[in-house]
Each structure stands twice: as structure tokens, then as C-alpha cells.
Amino acid sequence: MQADVKEPSNFNLRPRASAFIRRHTYLPAATTLACAAGFAAAFLLHWNLLAASAAASLLATTFAWGYATRALRRVEWPALRHLERQQYAEVWNALAATPLEARAAASGETTEAGLRRSAAAVEARLIELAGIRSEDDVLEIGCGVGRIGFALAPLCRSWTGADISPNMLGVAAGRLRSRDNVRLVHLRDCGLEELQDESFDVVYSTNVFAHLDEMDRWRYVQEAFRVLRPGGRLSIDNIDLESDAGWRVFADGARVSQALERPPYAPRISTAAELTTYATRAGFEQVRSHQRPPLVVVTAVKPGSAAGAGTP
After folding, report:
1. Count of alpha carbons within 13 Å of 157, Cβ hemisphere only?
2. Domain segments of the chain: what residues?
3. Residues lower than pLDDT 50 in the chain
4. CATH fold label, 88-301
């Protein structure tokens, strides 16, 4: 794997403890029960010093069990109201302060198994709509922790993941170290300036446009056109305002936070018309929208011919 990023190492004790507990969920309960048994035995045998020690251990492990229950329940999302929406690097670095938080921010899943399960439907959709092939050079815009790249890399010639958050890329580097056809690119700003013209056969972005300003969505579609080879395929998606499922997401969010200041990562949903307009205005052909509730997926093809190019 080629990468200029490193796995995060500056994690404090609390997230390390949370991550350990998530890997060994049985330990808090087992340790608490063992301490309880030890206390009972020492008390019955009148071993006062041992009983006092066991009681202290029982108190500590009971606290740890309670902490574990809270840690396993959910990841708390910071409000980040001091940041603007367009401060993407700062926002997503804050949401990805630890590997656990990075995984949760990328997919809502906190375990490796959960990440892989959540990637399966996206992988199938990209194969169906973008036609991932063994000879393709593939780029993901906003790759996060490499959730999709882990699944797609074995299916194509090369997979490149680009992201604006060094913390996200650090976790991706750890997850993808076994893939020898993977490259990770740190984007310094909104756009793909670090990537060369006409260097990819497929460009896709999933679960990203909801967190971007509309003008930045347009910017990335323009940039995707530039870095695609003639005949290259594009796939982008967002929550679909026009679908029943997408409307529920919007309406529920409005009900909960109508009077509140929204955090900078709060999703903004789209319509098929918005996304197809970006693709058409950027110069793509064969622009099509596909309803995959709660998402709308837009695919398109860059004009021109290329060996192996086809319709998504």
C-alpha cells in the first residue's frame, strides 16, 4: 500500500479503554463476578484483610462494568458549533479523534465486522451501477477509514482513497495495509488538485455529499470529470428528499433540531435533479438517476472512447 499518512498514535486513556472493552465485552462482567465470589468467600472464612481487599476490587470492577455498558451503548457526537461547515478537515478530525470514533463517524459501526457488513451493500451497488472491473483504476472521494476500499481493492487494478481528514486516513492506512494495490491521498483543500488529469476509470463518492456544502458538491463533480479518462464512469449519491425514506430523515431531523443550531456535519439531503444537474453541467453524458431508498444514486460517463469503457 502506498500512503503518506500514519496510523494515529496520540490517543488518550479513555478511548483506549473503550476500544479494549469493545474487543473484550465479557471481561467487565466476568471480573466483577470473580471479585464478588472472592469477597463472599473471604467474608465467610473471616479473612478480614482479604475481604477488605476483595470489597475494594468489587467496587472498582462494578464501576468498570457500568462504564463498559455506557461505552458499548453509543459514541457521543460533539456539537462542534465553533467550527463552520466548510472546515471539513477540522470537523472530521474532531469526529475521528480515535479509531473507534473514526469508524463510528464513517459508518455508524464501531467494530471491524460491522464495517465490513455495512460495506457489502455499497460494494454491490457500485458493481451494479458503475461496473467495477479488474482492469479499472478506481478513486473514492471521501474514503474515510477505507470502509469501501477494503472490499473493492481486490476487484480492480488499483484503488485510491482520497480524504481531507488525516485522522480518517490514519485509520484507513491500518485497515488497508494488507492490500498491495491501494494508495491513500491527503487532500489539502476542497478539490482533487493532488491527482492527475485522466488517471482513473471510475470515480465514486458515497455517504459524503450529505456533509458537503452544495457548491463543494459541484466542485468535486467537476474535479471527477477532470481526473477521469475518456469513457470513465462516475457514481455519486446522497439521501433522496423525494423518496419516502429520505423525507422521513429530513422531517425527523427538522422536528428534533428546528430551533437548534445545527452541527457542521449535519446531513443536507439532495434530489435527483440537483445531482444530475451537476453531472450534466460538468460535461458528463449518459447521466442517470437510480432510486435506492433512502438514497438517490447518479451515474454518468465522460465522453470519449477508452479500451473497456462502457455504460454504467
Report:
1. 7
2. 13-73, 88-301
3. 6-16, 19, 22-23, 58, 63-73, 307-311
4. Rossmann fold (3.40.50)
